[in-house]
Amino acid sequence: xxxxxxxxxxxxxxxxxxxxxxxxxxxxxxxxxxxxxxxxxxxxxxxxxxxxxxxxxxxxxxxxxxxxxxxxxxxxxxxxxxxxxxxxxxxxxxxxxxxxxxxxxxxxxxxxxxxxxxxxxxxxxxxxxxxxxxxxxxxxxxxxxxxxxxxxxxxxxxxxxxxxxxxxxxxxxxxxxxxxxxxxxxxxxxxxxxxxxxxxxxxxxxxxxxxxxxxxxxxxxxxxxxxxxxxxxxxxxxxx
Length: 240
Ligand code: UTP
Prior knowledge:
Layout: E1 9-13, H1 27-38, E2 46-50, H2 53-65, H3 70-92, H4 104-111, E3 117-119, H5 128-139, E4 143-148, E5 169-170, H6 172-181, H7 198-207, E6 210-215, H8 220-226, E7 235-237
Parallel strand pairs: 1-2, 1-4, 2-3, 4-6, 5-7
Antiparallel strand pairs: 6-7
Bound molecules: uridine 5'-triphosphate (UTP).
């Protein structure tokens, strides 16, 4: 790919990559991301959407223990994802737009500054994956990349089952079937949205975006992807 090619894209960084299992901020990982993003000359609009991670879940569980509503729990998740975004902005310095857009309207202003834009949640009732899709739709992104702590979408939880099978490619119908099959009553609860949820699927279906899901535990694959090599070992979701 031409290094200066103009392209718009969205990268969702799962909260699992922002914190270590000991609830520490993964400073090394954030700095590594920063180095990769700065490594390529770019033009176009690039938006990073940060998840909430363990810390968001911790707050959500506390609010739930006070019998707080799911919407209130979501509000805490959104706040934490925005704090995480601020951390990335602090690491990116001049390279990033200094504010975290809180709406699509604020995003449209941020775009005018030609900097990396980093944002978290938008409104209750959805995940940051849904935000990433809304943003991708809004900016007319070529791709959406979802970086998480597993290699892609599996037929069952790869952290629990050694024989879990990775899907290299899923079309929208296959993805829907998987999500419906896995729909526990909990799926739409605050803090419980999985790699791909129903709200995200609905946005995906109308927007036709190509989604690349890969592991961000080790960033060599993403580094290659960012330089233009789109042959990933994770899951690609596309219409057909
Ligand atoms: P996510 O669950 O999307 O973050 O957002 P995550 O930690 O990156 O998730 P993984 O790693 O992909 O699984 C944290 C919580 O914030 C609320 C939801 O409760 C969500 O579970 N949220 C986020 C919203 O309510 N609205 C948004 O637009 C975004």
